[in-house]
């Protein structure tokens, strides 16, 4: 080849290299920019539809609120209730809010079908709002005329319910579809950007090989290649600019020199000018929120020392005062000897994402309160009616009341399961750990499932166990009752369920096993049963009932404790569910051999049936019981367990009741225990031993409970103030306390509660948190400032989700917590009676 031909070939090669070096990076940048622009557009559509859905839900709520206000206006005009102008103003306010929601809703860029529905629904809602305002105004001037028009107004209200529900459902479906489309487009954008970049690298390698084959090695060519490299670097900078759309900045820290490098996007996230001069450590520390700085520095030092990965969430404050939320990720790069040579990582701005999550959390909290409060009223009222509080019901009415109560309890369980699943998904389910005997947990769960098992003709038995676990008592009880409920439901009539607990093969863990004799679970379904809304056989949902949330909740609770849960099955012969919990250190030292809680009643009678009936009667009202069938056994139990009261039969073989009472009075340890005689003999037949009262068999339950309250000091002089803004629930709680022999008053606002407490200090305060004027936290804080009220015993009764910090803010004197619609009436009664006893037992 001649020198001229070689030169022409070299020139052509250089021209080709220049074209490739410029065009390929620009092509990669174009692909990246186009892809991420499409992603941003899709995300914008998703957020637009989500926001439109929220305004539609608010409009739906205003639609309901206007309806309620108009009905209230018409009713109050007849009954002399709330002043008309106030309700009229409320209607006007809700109408104005509805118009605002409709205006904003129509302003969103929605899919054509949804936009048409919005435009079609708006005039109907506005007409309905005009009709409501006119009807409320008419109720002020002519109540009779207004009531005459209520039927037409009610029809208009009903006619709008289905279109609104349909629009809300379609908006939710559209939001989900847009979100999926945005995720799909983001995946595609990343894929094609990576593919283009890979193609560019391959092309550059081929080009380098081609140039090498041409023998380009002179200084002029090297200079040109350097220019092309710089051009390539600039193109890579443009590629990084395209990736900034993901709001992710990167950093690198060298262990040997301590030097660090930041990407331009990281500067932008911190609100700084790219490549701003200054020490990176100082620049970063200056931007981290002061409340988060110590945590962030501690995590980085730990990662640098140990070479572990970093993942932290914190806030940064930009120079203009804007606060952003970020997620930091980092990992260590090691040399061949395993020593850390550098740390690399990213920081992502997640402010908008967290805002959406908080919006979701607030929605769940509102739903929690707004569902649990009326459900508590419904279940409480039905429980009172079914239990005879309103008098004996005809047989048919009693059956209807029982059906309604059972259905409300199923609805409560569904709501609680859904909220528990949501808390677990959000990582907000907190545990209140304590040392708990396994036998105590198992016995409590079995007792709760006893009625269900008897109805299904299934026997539940427990093996002896002495393990003590470090666990959240209520949450583990939830796991056990869920597993026992499933075992009973899927066991055949006449079958048995066996429960056992003891040390597991894993060191430091206790193992619980629940075995049934049901049809079993196919091997390929053993893991799937722990998925949400899943059962081994879809027909089980209809035949046995349930939502498919129980086992996922069990797994979530066990996982939070650091344990595991699994299922094994022999199809046709039964299934065993096994879960583990951490054991308490030296569990044998904490076995349940100490005295029972305050309030235990010792029942002494030689007739086992009488003892069993009396124990069931007392335990149904929240009392703990001890059982003795002879005087000698009663003396031993009284010394060992220190009961708060003794129910004593007189005529018993061996040591009689008189002798047993004398023995109790002779021992200083038992001399002060109140005694109630329960005998077939009348007190006129003989001298009355030293006792608090005398009841004649057969005893009336009301007389027995009244005698216990008098003997324990919890008589009618005990008073409770219920603070609850929901009037129906307040009345249910007041009736509950009256039925238990306790005076009760109800306050509907925080200010009213403070005023009533200061006028007459109650013995116990039952407090809801969501009050119309000041919340429950403010009520507690005000009481802490009052010398007379700062030690007031408190039961917080709320549908809200409480964190450990929330509970700390709510502590007054003896403080307990109960969840609306989350606890049965028996559990609530046990909480209250226990608290009453603590109050009345103090000197």
TrEMBL record:
Residues 310-362 form the PAC domain. SUPFAM superfamilies: ATPase domain of HSP90 chaperone/DNA topoisomerase II/histidine kinase, CheY-like, Homodimeric domain of signal transducing histidine kinase, PYP-like sensor domain (PAS domain). PROSITE patterns: HIS_KIN (PS50109), PAC (PS50113), RESPONSE_REGULATORY (PS50110). It catalyses: ATP + protein L-histidine = ADP + protein N-phospho-L-histidine. Its main location: membrane. It is an enzyme of class 2 (transferase). Residues 366-585 form the Histidine kinase domain. Keywords: Coiled coil, Kinase, Membrane, Phosphoprotein, Transferase, Transmembrane, Transmembrane helix, Two-component regulatory system. Residues 600-712, 719-835 form the Response regulatory domain. The modification 4-aspartylphosphate is found at residues 649, 768. This is histidine kinase. The lineage of its organism: Bacteria, Bacillati, Actinomycetota, Actinomycetes, Micrococcales.
């Amino acid at each position: 080849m001649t020198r001229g031909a070689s030169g022409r070939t070299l020139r052509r090669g250089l021209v080709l290299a220049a074209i490739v070096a410029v065009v390929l990076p620009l092509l990669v940048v174009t692909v990246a920019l186009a892809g991420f622009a499409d992603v941003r557009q899709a995300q914008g559509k998703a957020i637009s539809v989500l926001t439109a859905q929220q305004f539609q839900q608010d409009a739906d709520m205003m639609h309901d609120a206007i309806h309620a206000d108009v009905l209230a206006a018409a009713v109050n005009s007849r009954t002399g209730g709330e002043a008309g102008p106030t309700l009229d103003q409320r209607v006007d306010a809700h109408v104005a809010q509805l118009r605002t929601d409709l205006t904003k809703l129509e302003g969103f860029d929605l899919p054509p079908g949804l936009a048409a529905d919005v435009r079609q629904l708006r005039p109907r809602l506005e007409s309905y709002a005009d009709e409501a305002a006119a009807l409320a105004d008419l109720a002020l001037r002519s109540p009779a005329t207004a009531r005459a028009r209520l039927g037409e107004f009610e029809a208009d209200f009903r006619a709008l319910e289905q279109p609104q529900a349909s629009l809300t459902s379609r908006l939710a479906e559209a939001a989900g579809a847009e979100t999926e489309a945005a995720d799909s487009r983001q995946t595609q954008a990343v894929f094609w950007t990576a593919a283009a970049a890979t193609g560019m690298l391959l092309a550059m390698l081929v080009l380098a090989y081609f140039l090498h084959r041409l023998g380009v090695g002179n200084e002029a060519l090297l200079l040109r290649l350097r220019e092309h490299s710089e051009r390539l670097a600039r193109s890579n900078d443009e590629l990084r600019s395209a990736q900034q759309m993901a709001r992710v900045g990167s950093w690198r820290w060298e262990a040997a020199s301590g030097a660090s490098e930041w990407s331009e996007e990281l500067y932008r996230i911190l609100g700084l000018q790219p490549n701003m001069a200054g020490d990176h450590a100082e620049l970063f520390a200056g931007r981290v929120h002061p409340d988060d700085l110590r945590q962030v520095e501690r995590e980085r030092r730990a990662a640098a020392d140990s070479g572990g990965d970093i993942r932290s969430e914190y806030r940064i404050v930009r120079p203009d005062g804007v606060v952003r939320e970020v997620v930091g990720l980092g990992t260590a790069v090691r040399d061949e000897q395993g020593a850390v040579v550098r740390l690399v990582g990213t920081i992502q701005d997640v402010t908008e994402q967290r805002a959406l999550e908080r919006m979701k959390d607030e929605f769940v909290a509102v739903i929690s309160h707004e569902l649990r409060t009326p459900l508590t009223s419904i279940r409480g009222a039905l429980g009172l009616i079914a239990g005879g509080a309103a008098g004996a019901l005809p047989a048919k009415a009693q059956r209807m009341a029982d059906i309604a109560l059972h259905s409300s309890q199923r609805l409560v369980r569904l709501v609680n399961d859904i909220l528990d699943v949501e808390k677990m998904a959000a990582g907000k389910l907190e545990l209140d750990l304590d040392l708990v005997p396994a036998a105590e947990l198992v016995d409590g769960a079995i007792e709760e499932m006893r009625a269900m098992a008897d109805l299904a003709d299934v026997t539940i038995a427990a093996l002896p166990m002495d393990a003590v676990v470090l666990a959240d008592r209520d949450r583990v009880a939830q796991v056990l009752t869920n597993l026992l409920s499933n075992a009973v439901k899927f066991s055949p009539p006449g079958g048995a369920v066996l429960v056992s607990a003891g040390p597991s093969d894993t060191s430091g863990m206790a193992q619980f096993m629940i075995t049934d004799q049901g049809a079993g679970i196919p091997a390929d379904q053993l893991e799937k049963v722990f998925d949400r809304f899943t059962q081994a056989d879809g027909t089980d949902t209809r035949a046995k009932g349930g939502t498919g949330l129980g086992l996922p909740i069990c797994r979530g609770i066990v996982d939070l404790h650091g344990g595991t849960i699994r299922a094994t099955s022999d199809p046709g012969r039964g299934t065993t569910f096994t879960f583990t919990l951490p054991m308490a250190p030296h569990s044998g030292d904490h076995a349940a051999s100490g005295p029972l809680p305050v309030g235990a009643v010792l029942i002494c009678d030689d007739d086992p049936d009488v003892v069993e009936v009396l124990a069931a009667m007392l335990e149904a009202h929240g009392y703990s019981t001890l059982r003795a069938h002879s005087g000698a056994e009663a003396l031993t139990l009284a010394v060992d367990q220190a009961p708060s009261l003794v129910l004593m039969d007189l005529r018993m073989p061996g040591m009689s009741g008189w002798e047993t009472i004398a023995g109790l009075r002779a021992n200083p340890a038992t001399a002060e225990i109140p005694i109630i005689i329960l005998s077939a003999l009348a007190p006129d037949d003989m001298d009355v031993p030293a006792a608090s009262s005398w009841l004649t068999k057969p005893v009336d339950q009301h007389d027995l409970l009244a005698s216990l309250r008098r003997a324990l000091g919890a008589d009618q002089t005990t008073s409770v103030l219920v603070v609850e803004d929901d009037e129906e629930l307040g009345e249910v709680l007041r009736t509950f306390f009256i039925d238990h022999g306790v005076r009760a008053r109800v306050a509907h606002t925080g200010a009213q509660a403070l005023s009533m407490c200061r006028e007459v200090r109650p013995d116990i305060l039952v407090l809801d948190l969501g009050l119309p004027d000041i919340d429950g936290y403010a009520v507690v804080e005000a009481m802490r400032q009052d010398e007379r009220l700062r030690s007031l015993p408190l039961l917080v009764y709320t549908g809200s989700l409480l964190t450990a910090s929330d509970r700390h803010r709510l502590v007054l004197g003896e403080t307990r917590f109960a969840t609306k619609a989350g606890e049965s009436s028996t559990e609530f009664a046990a909480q209250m009676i226990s608290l009453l006893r603590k109050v009345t037992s103090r000197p």
